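Aim 2 progress update. The chain analyzed this quarter is reproduced below.
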Amino acid sequence: MKNIITLILFVYLSKILGQTATNWTVTDCSGNSHELFNDLDAGKVAVIIWVMPCVSCINGALSAQTEVQNALVNNPGMVVYYLADDVANTNCATLTSWASTNGITDAFVMTNTAVSMSPYGAAGMPKVVVIGRDKKVYYNQNAPALNANGIKGGIAAALAAPTGISKNSIPGVKFDISPNPSSSSTEINLSLSHASDVKIEVFNEIGQVVAKEINVQLSPGIHKYTIDSSEWANGTYFISAIIDGKKIQEKLVVAH
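Predicted structure tokens:
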């Protein structure tokens, strides 16, 4: 009997954890647009939690936030945390207030039917899934079984999944910043050997986007952009350039 139960559990987990994520494009409660597959294609791992604004969902949301923060220490900008209403029947003001009141401050909050639990098996609150850069599911669990260690392991496995990112170089691309450290502004120097789709973003140490500089197609040649850091807090930031789906990244220290 024990072997039969183990086999059933293995088959269930294989179906869930081997599945491909479902894409969506939504606007969060702060008015920012997000497309799940864009994040994944840029080399990020997505952690999604579905909640009701209730007491029983708080610990799960805080555990997920903590594991995201821990992962970002060594993987800056590489993990994004989404908090979604379970069936999108809670308005943004209520959901955002619930999250803020309970210390859930690092999540992109959204209430939209497109962000659905249904592709990931049984519904439940809270429910957490971790999706890797290869669009595969690495953790999928509902309360009361979800836990911090499971989320941590799912994020670690997702970060180890294949990706098109090169943190050091991309053939035909030169990318540098100066001055660094910066007291008020920094110039990005980008040299392209061929026309490319380019997106440049700046992240803080917990992976929050603090500046979106460009998202355009650029011609071959040298391009320069100035980042105004005069109002940023002192600390470490990460400037990433996603070029034709591949990513390079530089660390920027801000010291006023």
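The CA atoms of residues 126 and 144 lie 8 Å apart. The longest strand covers residues 209-218. These observations will guide the mutagenesis experiments scheduled for the next reporting period.
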